[in-house]
Amino acid sequence: MKNDANVKLSVPARPEFVDLVRLTLYGIAAKMNFSYEEIEDMKVAVSEACNNAVLHAYGGEENGGSVDVRFDILGEDELRITVSDSGESFVPSGDLQSSNLLGKSIEEIQSGGLGLYLMQALMDSVEVRTQQGTAVVMSKRREAAGKASV
Known about the structure:
Blueprint: E1 5-12, H1 18-31, H2 36-57, E2 66-74, E3 78-85, H3 113-122, E4 125-129, E5 134-141, H4 143-148
Antiparallel strand pairs: 1-2, 2-3, 3-5, 4-5
Helix pairs in contact: 1-2, 2-3
């Protein structure tokens, strides 16, 4: 697959379209030679980001808006995925980089906090931007590529 390329996808902010995003991710990541496990991790993280947009960005309106997804192929071994909407902005509580959910029970975790925690656990980096809607920017490097450079 050509290095430094991108694919853009815009789908209605409805649950039945999240599978289309997952299928697109699978196709791109498979062509980049990500492992099955890495692809499954990315699919979970992207689903969480898309579901947050579907559920929260447009206040549950049936024809509320769209979810835009951009897949950026960076070099031979890194994929950056941006999931964005133009709905109501989401502001994560606390410092996103130092999520302290370890040792907490499910009841202690705020609504939405578990999804962000999952994204952070499954991806190499996660950034939430809240200007004119919400954008979640996640990236993943191929594990085999990381081992080869050590």
